Amino acid sequence: MFPANQPASLLSHLGSLCVYNLHKCLRLHVRHSLPSSKTLTMTQDREFRILIAGGGVAGLTLANALEQANVPYLLLERRAELAPQVGASIGIFSSGARILDQLGAWRRIEETAERINLLTARRHNGSVICEDRSSELILARTGYCTAWGERQVLLQALVDNIKDQSKLLTGRNIVEVRHDLETGVTVVCENGEEYEGDVLVGCDGVNSRVRERMWELAEPEMPGVVKGERESEFHSLLMRIPRGEDALTFMTGLFADYNTLFGIAYGVEGLTAGHLDTSYNIGRVGMTIVAEGGKMYWFAGERLSRRYYLGEIPRFDEEEVKSFLARNGSIVLRPEPNRLTLADLWKKTVVHRLVSIEQGKFKLWHWGRITCAGDSIHKSTPNLGVGGNIGIESAATLANGIKQLADKCSRTGQLRRPSPDDIQKMLAEYQQEREIRAAAVVDASGFLTQAHCMQTAYHQFFVNWMLPNFGELIAELFHHVMIGATKLDFLPLPKRSLMVNAPFNPTQGDGRRESKLKRAFFGLPLLFLSCLAFYIMNVGIPEQWAKDQRDGGFIAVDNTSVPVLRSFYGWKSLDETMAWVNMIFVPGMYGVSEEGRRHMITFLLEGLPFFTIWLLESTRRANALTILQLPTLFLTLCQLMGIGIIAPLYLHLHYVLSPVESFAARDKRLTNTRRSYTTLPSILLGYLVPLVGFLFSPHLPHRQAWLFVWQLFPIWTSLGMFVLSRFVRETVNQDKIDNTEKDLTVLRWYVGLGSVLAAGGHVWGKMAGAAGWGFLLPGGIPRGCADLTSFSVSFLQWDYLFGFGSHVVWLGYLFWDLARAGMLEEGCGSVMGVVVGGLVTVGPGATVGGAWLFREGVLAGRWHRDAVTVESVGRLHGGSK
């Protein structure tokens, strides 16, 4: 009933490719006699026509789309009316709203539905777990609000939007389907009427008669698949899903673990319209959506005693409703002062219904001239509220394919009658387009259902910890579900769907997300650099040299003996460890080695842009709840082991966790300005000031004290950001909606200033020595050096090479990503050519800083090549309205 609080599993439904390949090889020839005299149209002289079984959301959406595509159709509904009042409500989200808007039916629905503006998760006693006000963000990202209303209103709007009402036939209960691959399909209704068409689309719900007939036809050729569909079995399969996800196991068929009593109540006073509340309980759940005028949509569910499968899923009567209320009437929906229990709400309920809530995904979407759409082929639980939306999407995808077939027939001069091969190819493409995405949404809703009832310890952890600590989880899950939504290709796109912060993109979102495993494999060269650095930079013998010098008590500097500082923080183990590490810095700190000192100054100044970037990345919204939020950990490891070893590891993780799709919403590039604005001041205080102290303090013994301070700069920088952020006003909640580029100026100043200092250090280092920039290149393996001074120089040279060189490799990955997404107008080769020029002239620190800022500008100002925007709609879709 609102978005699932768990990323949807994208690996669970793999049958489309198998079915498609089988259909290319197999042809089912089921021939029947000519239709009886009651058949309304004869095969020989009619035009291409679609038969739609079922007048629910999917069926009526398909009917609207086919009418506007000028494709003949008939809709057959078994009930006496198309929009009955059965007490059900429905959520319409961006994915469905855009299609309804294309059809011209959305405005009426939007005017009558309730806009959700606050989602509250509650404990069993009504106390608040967390609140989510992400509705504004969803609107800014997609152009559509999250709307909730009566299912009857949606159905009536779709019915009224049909111009030729004669195509909508009620009271037609289908009892038989006759199929001939070569000539067409005929349905026989209970009243004896027969209707012919070229394609039969089963939109007749979870107990679909059309799906059953499709199984009967397919069973001789695919007995194992049909058996699995009917008996709801788990299947194991190893194959590649398009766009990169691997899968091993999926479930096919239909089952029910829960039931739900839902209804509509009136006269519920004292509550604010637009609020959606969820009461999380072990084994049961209660939900309410408040509308204007004291109206309330509500839901209550419980876990069934066992899992039921297709053919045995229970149905309930009024006696069982009373029993349900006796068990669950104590569910607290709202605490004091407006305390509301399910029993209280029942007293004001005017319509209700108790049902088992099925969940199902099927492998066999089509056979011959028969296919299914909506709940008959992908059934989600109501907890995510997307069942109607994915039905709308499937209807739109199918309409696109049918329209293309009809247009092809018109161009070739046929009587708008496509061949059986063309029909089967179209239906296979329909399944391939929709199956994985629909399955991902079904899984997401299933997870939310389990979380609502806190089914396992993991679900309890998710509810009690993850929900309150990541307030935008719902908006993020909405984003992944909605961004890849289908549209009607033959109708103009509404402008409101184009002028947004996260435009629709058919190549992104659930079911199409880039494989993290694939990125990890592709990024292995960075891990190789880390391993190679670890091998080459192994301290070995010099560790003892440093300890000997530390324990000797004095350091000889220009005929002056400087006492060794062995205690600073008063923590013996820390002080002893840091004291011997400090000895490695002695040649550069005191100028014992001119080359070592020059290299150290250059190295440490060039590190400024890198550290600034790492800290800024930790504040980026796209990196929330990832290890990239822990720069202090990685920077501390750099101090202990060397940036040459740790940087490639960090950059590999960054590459894996930050694909271009992470920035499909402009607000995801945005940093948390309260923290990002404090990065450079914190670096100056925690890194640069101690650095100047231990390099240039006129009192030689004090340099060691400053070095003790500098060694812990990751901690001081982190503390600085924490303290300074208390003085910065938090504006990210508004910035993410209407000012997604607010941080760009500050980021450019911060990284730019660090890059200037880095460039200055690099140029000075080259000009100060006779060897030019060659002084930065290592001349041997550190552990092969003869003394501590030569080891120190060699170690820092290798640290420089691996640490800074890995950032250049990382840039190559980032720009390759941009190029693949069509966002790098300059070309990957040209950009990397500039990078090489920068490395030669101003060094890696300034070059990486400048390249990172350039990428920020690209992410803030350009869209993915497949994003459906005002700029791209003419190229991709032929205009908008």
TrEMBL record:
Record's keyword terms, sorted: FAD, Flavoprotein, Membrane, Oxidoreductase, Transmembrane, Transmembrane helix
Domain FAD-binding: 49-214, 363-444
Pfam families: FAD_binding_3
Known cofactor(s): FAD
InterPro entries xref list: FAD-bd, FAD/NAD-bd_sf, FAD_mOase_fung
GO molecular function, one term: FAD binding
Transmembrane helix listed as a keyword: yes
TM helices/strands, residue ranges: 520-541, 600-616, 628-657, 677-696, 708-728, 749-775, 795-816, 828-854
Family: Belongs to the paxM FAD-dependent monooxygenase family.
UniProt name for this protein: FAD-binding domain-containing protein
Organism this protein belongs to: Cercophora samala
Taxonomic placement: Eukaryota, Fungi, Dikarya, Ascomycota, Pezizomycotina
